[in-house]
């Protein structure tokens, strides 16, 4: 889950305003990316890109590639 809080107290939680552009297909192995964008009422813009690798069925490892790399064994 992605959450976003605007600077100061004016906008507060802007999670519902996040626009997600993603080509992730959880049924097809491959590397996918997602772009998360939000703009507050003052015109301040923020974005983040996330990369996800989907492995074929039977592969026991899920990788989430990001600035903070993580591998979760399932």
Descriptive report:
The protein is an all-beta fold and 74 residues long. The protein has one domain (15-73). Helices cover 0% and strands 45% of the residues. It is built from no helices and five strands. The chain has strands at 19-22, 30-39, 45-54, 61-65, 70-73. The chain has a five-stranded antiparallel sheet, with no helix packed on it. Strand 3 and strand 4 (61-65) form a beta hairpin. The model is unreliable at 69-74 (pLDDT under 50).
Number of domains: 1
**Could you tell me the radius of gyration in angstroms?**
15 Å
| DSSP strand count | 5
Q: Helical percent range?
A: under 10%
* Low-confidence residue ranges: 69-74
Query: How many helices in DSSP terms?
Result: 0
Beta-strand fraction estimate: 35-45%
Shape: elongated
Mean pLDDT value = 75
Largest sheet entry: 5 strands, antiparallel
Structural class: mainly beta
What is the straight-line distance between the termini?
19 Å
Query: What's the order of the H and E elements?
Result: EEEEE
Q: Order of strands side by side in the largest beta sheet? A: 1-2-3-4-5
């Amino acid at each position: 889950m992605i959450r976003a809080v605007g600077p100061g107290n004016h906008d507060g939680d802007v999670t519902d305003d996040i626009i997600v552009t993603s080509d992730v297909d959880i049924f097809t192995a491959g590397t996918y990316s997602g772009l998360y964008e939000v703009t507050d009422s003052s015109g301040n813009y923020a974005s983040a890109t996330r990369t996800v690798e989907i492995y074929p069925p039977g592969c026991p490892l899920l990788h989430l590639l990001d600035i903070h790399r993580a591998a979760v064994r399932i």
